[in-house]
UniProtKB/TrEMBL annotation:
Major subcellular location class: membrane
Entry protein name: MFS transporter
Topological relation to the membrane, as annotated: Multi-pass membrane protein
PANTHER family the UniProt entry points to: L-FUCOSE-PROTON SYMPORTER, PROTEIN TSGA
A cellular-component GO term for this protein: plasma membrane
Length: 385
């Protein structure tokens, strides 16, 4: 009984870390605020999410090596400290450059957190409880993403300025950091790892791993892209102000949360590849219809449908990669996390195409192309049973 009680005390602060992990998705609505505050073009504004997601390419493998040296819990604490610093800077002095620094530090902290938090969870729970705990963590992350636009709207309307979002996030991260710091988690001494940049990226010579890695790049691009374009569609087509337009991102994340929850049960009964194929086909159909919709409710319904159908694709691609080379599971995990940098590549392309065409249809074209690649992944890649 005492051991079970200790496990629960350690589990709760670790799970709360997944809520902090979801803060990176606030970049979607924050981009709309920063664009309006500084009169940025769509092309320039498209680089703001890049400041968050670029670090997954640069730091995922080094973060894993760093974690091997200092331990998992300490690495998680470092990630939260970086996040707190990033959230304080723009509140002290708000300008375009401090916003860029804040987004960069948010991305650095989130990269380190995503690399270290899942392994830390394995030190707290085992067996079937681990699987359910991982699912609970992902749901908490999605809830955090869903709450972000509402927190921004609360800061703008009740507190008088959306920038109060930054100290709110800093305070929540500080609570999470303090909670975890004072909980004992037993860790084994880290084993010496042979992982390196060369060994990890050398896996891309395997055609299946390469195609699945690109699948991660594009599914994250779709996720960040929809999160970013949803408020802009409501502003452009429905006349919403920036604060009200945040409902677009919230609807997306709400249905992504529901989709992930439903997918947890359905994937125990149906083939993963079939589930992947059906969902991406529905998402593509919804995206095509979205090109022609101008009413706020039709736009929100389609955004919800895309969120629901795309919710499990990241984990499906991840598992396909592990099944393809199970003997390289650790290296593949690091490589797939690196693929999250797709969130840095797709938004600038969306911004460029939007400026080129003159409407948000340019952004939708880029997202649709990403979905078409994901359709290819669902039908063109065979993995081991």
């Amino acid at each position: 009984m005492k051991e079970s009680s200790t496990s629960i005390k350690a589990l709760l602060p670790v799970l709360f870390g997944f809520f902090i992990m979801g803060f990176c998705d606030v970049v979607g609505i924050a981009t709309s605020y920063v664009k309006a505050d500084f009169g940025l073009s769509e092309t320039i504004a498209g680089f703001l999410p890049s400041m968050v997601f670029l670090w997954f390419l640069l730091l995922a493998v080094p973060a894993a090596i760093f974690m091997n040296r200092i331990g998992r819990k300490k690495t998680v604490l470092v990630s939260m400290l970086v996040t707190i610093v990033g959230m304080i800077i723009p509140f002290i002095d708000y300008n375009l450059y401090t916003c860029l620094i804040a987004f960069a530090l948010l991305g650095i902290g989130n990269t380190i957190l995503q690399v270290s938090l899942n392994p830390l969870l394995t030190n707290v729970v085992k067996g079937n409880v681990l699987a359910s705990s991982l699912t609970a963590g992902q749901v908490l992350k999605a809830v955090s993403s869903f709450c972000g636009p509402f927190i921004a709207a609360f800061a703008a309307t009740v507190l008088g300025n959306w920038q109060y979002l930054f100290p709110i996030f800093a305070l929540l991260t500080l609570i999470s950091m303090g909670w975890l710091m004072f909980v004992h988690i037993r860790e084994k001494s880290p084993e010496q790892s042979n992982s390196s940049w060369g060994a990890t990226f050398g896996l891309l010579k395997d055609r299946t791993i390469l195609l699945l890695f690109l699948g991660i790049v594009f599914v994250v691009g779709v996720d960040v892209g929809i999160n970013t374009v949803a408020p802009k569609l409501l502003i452009e087509r429905c006349g919403f102000d920036v604060t009200g337009a945040g409902v677009g991102s919230s609807v997306y994340f709400a249905f992504r949360t529901i989709g992930a929850f439903v997918g947890t049960f359905l994937l125990a009964r149906v083939s993963g590849s079939k589930y992947f194929r059906v969902n991406i086909l529905v998402a593509i159909a919804a995206m095509i219809v979205l090109f022609f919709m101008s009413g706020q409710y039709s736009i929100l319904v389609l955004i919800a449908l895309i969120g629901f159908t795309c919710s499990s694709i990241f984990s499906l691609i991840f598992s396909m990669a592990i099944q393809a080379r199970p003997e390289k599971a650790n290296e593949i995990s690091g490589l797939m996390v690196t693929g999250i940098f797709g969130g840095a590549v797709i938004p600038p392309l969306m911004g460029y195409c939007t400026d080129l065409i003159g409407t948000q249809a340019g952004s939708l074209i880029v997202i649709l192309c990403c979905m078409c690649y994901l359709l290819y992944c669902s039908v063109g890649i065979k993995t081991r049973k």
